[in-house]
Design a protein that fits this description.
It is built from two helices and 13 strands, in the order ααβββββββββββββ. By secondary structure, the chain is α+β, with helices and mostly antiparallel strands. The chain is elongated and about 90 Å long. The chain has one domain. The strands form four sheets. A five-stranded antiparallel beta sheet has the order 6-2-1-8-9, covered by helices on one side. Strands 7-11-12-13 form a four-stranded antiparallel beta sheet, covered by helices on one side.
Length: about 220
């Protein structure tokens, strides 16, 4: 004698035939939402990693200039007075440079220019010379991309740091109004502001004078 299928078994059997259109739409919607969250998180995490790596790289770049100054012995006119780092916020590039001749002139309030020259033996030679450069990746930018206008105090945007050999004595230029002329001082703190292109994360690097401490 055959048993008559119950109402419950009919429901189970009907479920076994597949998902309804509404159920499929719900599942697809959940998958899409989770995928977008993963993509968003991955992008944010990747940019944060790039920011941290670039911050460390820029700190190392400044330390390189300081190390070059420490190992410099000013025993003739052809040896640089020291080395520094110049920030170009317009192009997103940092430059290590050397500066030669007239070392005793460099003091508080000295104006250092990228076009500075000196004459010796009938020759005109550059005092300022770019040695090395590093550029930010497209995912990052400096918080202040142009040198003018600069933010008001207490912000002190670092435009240049110079390490005068051989100690080295440290000079900084902050909140400058020129990309080619820099007034340097032997005291104070200058800050480099880094951020992701979307503005979601920021990091800072502080350089102080006269000791040349670099904190981040």
């Amino acid at each position: 004698m055959n048993a008559t299928p119950s109402h419950e078994s009919k429901i189970i059997n009907s479920r076994g035939s597949g998902f309804t259109l509404i159920e499929l739409l719900v599942v697809v919607g959940i998958i899409a939402m989770m995928s977008s969250m993963v993509i968003s998180y991955s992008s944010s995490s990747r940019n944060q990693l790039i920011l941290s790596n670039e911050e460390a790289g820029l700190v190392g770049f400044i330390f390189k200039a300081k190390s070059l100054a420490i190992t410099t012995r000013r025993n003739d006119l052809n040896v640089p007075c020291g080395y520094g780092v110049r920030m170009d916020y317009v192009s997103g590039v940092a430059h290590i440079f050397s500066y030669a001749y007239g070392c005793n002139q460099i003091k508080d309030g000295y104006i250092m220019g990228t076009g500075d020259q000196y004459s010796i033996g009938g020759k005109t030679l550059p005092r300022y010379t770019d040695v090395s450069t590093t550029a930010l990746p497209s995912q990052l930018k400096f918080l202040y991309e142009s040198s003018s206008p600069k933010p008001p105090a207490p912000f002190s945007v670092l435009d240049m740091v110079f390490f005068l050999a051989p100690v080295p004595d440290t000079f900084i230029a902050v909140n400058n109004n020129s990309n080619s002329l820099f007034t340097v001082y032997k005291s104070g703190v200058g800050t480099i502001y880094l951020q992701t292109a979307d503005g979601s994360s920021k990091q800072t690097i502080n350089v102080s004078a006269p000791l040349g401490q670099i904190n981040f």
